[in-house]
TrEMBL record:
Any Pfam family: MFS_1
Protein name per UniProt: MFS transporter
PROSITE patterns (UniProt xref): MFS
Superkingdom of the organism of origin: Bacteria
Length: 480
């Protein structure tokens, strides 16, 4: 090897991830993140059709969701650290290839076992893809102003993906069949895999560092157990031995992880990272907003179909105003942050979100969309757009390149845990209220409406709690 070649190679390895076409690269990375978020919700509407063709009962159908969420939530922190060690671009591409392959297998599934295995591999691949993608974004945009805009787009993707899942699930299932909700990932994934190497330079691997295997095993086990326990609440109940056993396992493994991280020289998650107040606040807010959002989209879809009599396509189209407001506000949020600051923008957005949820809780069982649902939908979209953008920015505030994957893993883990927690708790609240109303002789439609009203009010309380946490963020920060 010549001296020139050696010098060039070392220079490239020492350089941070970069791209001459950063905004196009951001669009490609956002496409991949969109798929990850989309696949957590797009399957919901197609479950009845899927279950009929693959002979899956109600209990087994729930695992179509759980099989994806468990490895996704469980392996995110490990995925983020692997990206920091072996290179963010490399792990991103590996995760995307795995995600696309698993999507193809899921669409071709001829049995429930084949489908559930593919969903699990999808989730594990997403756990590699998501934190590496966010790390690449933070490295592509090192300057404060550009990073604020980029993270504004990135934060909006999470909300848009969840809202779009209901719409696309209904459209694709009605037009083509349940297989389409998985096959839609293939062309987008291929575009991402082809474009990223051309747009983003390879970042250096830090293979000299030692991977904290004990920490990785305990935190992954703890997260899998925690997500499993939250999923089990909705399937078998909070007092079931399976749920209690998973909670106990999560607590024991979580404690073991903390003890290991305190004693190891090169921890998987340096506990000192949580001394970054904005990072800690951002992650707590993401967790709480995720809890409110996942429960909201679940309940809104069921309310429109089971109570108002909408078909799947109409229910999806009815959420377009919410998604549209979210997109518009996500684009404006960086400018608002520049004028008002991150803390005021975050708290204001969360208060608007809470107001929209309270308004939605007042919808009657014979609600007219334009009169009872359109207004709160727009408010909720505004609140979610501003909250997600600002909380995402806070969660990576002040993070160095060597911990960018960790920060991405933490943020995505917070969102997944929050979503599972919110759905488990608020769905149980709604079910209890519905049962109580039915026992008192109330009609089915009115009972369901009463249950969902409590769910929306519970989500509003979570949004208010998030606003309280958001007020603790630092007034000035390096990122926003």
């Amino acid at each position: 090897m010549s001296t020139t070649t050696t010098t060039t190679t070392r220079t490239e390895e020492a350089s941070p991830t970069r791209s001459a076409r950063r905004w196009l690269a951001l669009g490609i990375l956002a496409l991949a993140q969109f798929l990850v978020v989309l696949d957590a919700s797009i399957v919901n509407i197609t479950l009845p059709s899927l279950g009929s063709q693959l002979a899956m009962d109600t209990a087994t159908l729930a695992w179509v969701i759980t099989a994806y969420v468990l490895p996704f939530g469980g392996f995110l922190l490990l995925g983020g650290r692997l990206a920091d060690r072996y290179g963010h671009r490399r792990l991103f591409l590996l995760g995307t290839v795995g995600f696309v392959a698993a999507s193809a297998v899921a669409g071709l599934s001829s049995s429930s076992g084949m489908l559930l295995g593919a969903r699990a591999f999808q989730g594990a691949s997403a756990a590699l893809l998501a934190p590496a993608a966010l790390a690449l974004v933070t490295q592509l945009f090192p300057s404060t102003s550009d990073r604020t805009k980029a993270l504004g787009i990135w934060g909006a993707v999470a909300g848009i993906g969840s809202a779009a899942g209901v719409l696309l699930g209904g459209v694709l299932t009605a037009a083509i069949g349940w297989q389409a909700v998985f096959f839609v990932n293939l062309p987008i994934g291929v575009i991402v895999i082809a474009a990223v190497p051309a747009l983003i330079t390879r970042d250096p691997a830090t293979t000299h560092s030692r991977l904290d295997y004990a920490g990785a095993a305990t935190v992954t086990g703890a997260l899998v157990a925690a997500v499993g326990a939250l999923s089990a609440v909705g399937q078998v109940g909070a007092a079931h031995p399976l749920t209690l056993g998973l909670v106990a396992a999560a607590l024991v493994l979580g404690l073991a992880f903390v003890l290991i991280e305190r004693r190891t020289a090169e921890p998987l998650v340096p506990l000192g990272v949580f001394r970054n107040r904005n990072l800690s606040v951002g992650n707590i807010v993401v967790l709480l907003v995720g809890a409110a959002m996942v429960a909201l989209f679940y309940a809104l879809s069921v309310f429109m179909q089971a109570v108002l009599g909408y078909d799947a396509l109409t229910a999806g189209l009815s959420q377009l105003p919410l998604a549209g407001a979210l997109v518009v506000i996500a684009g404006l949020a960086p400018n608002v942050v520049g004028l008002l600051g991150a803390r005021r923008t975050l708290v204001g957005s969360l208060l608007i979100l809470a107001g929209g949820l309270v308004w939605l809780a007042a919808a009657p069982s014979d609600a007219v969309f334009a009169l009872h649902l359109l207004g709160p939908s727009l408010l909720i979209g505004v609140g979610l757009g501003g909250a997600f953008v600002t909380a995402t920015q806070l969660s990576v505030d002040g993070v160095e390149g060597g911990e960018a994957g960790l920060a991405g893993g933490l943020m995505n883990t917070s969102q997944q845990i929050g979503g599972a927690l919110g759905l488990a708790v608020l769905a149980s609240v709604a079910a209890s209220r519905t049962s109580a109303l039915e026992a008192g002789g109330t009609s089915t439609a009115a009972s369901l409406t009463g249950g969902f009203s409590w769910l929306f009010l519970g989500a509003a309380l979570i949004a208010l709690a998030a606003a309280g946490v958001g007020s603790l963020s630092r007034r000035h920060s390096a990122t926003v």
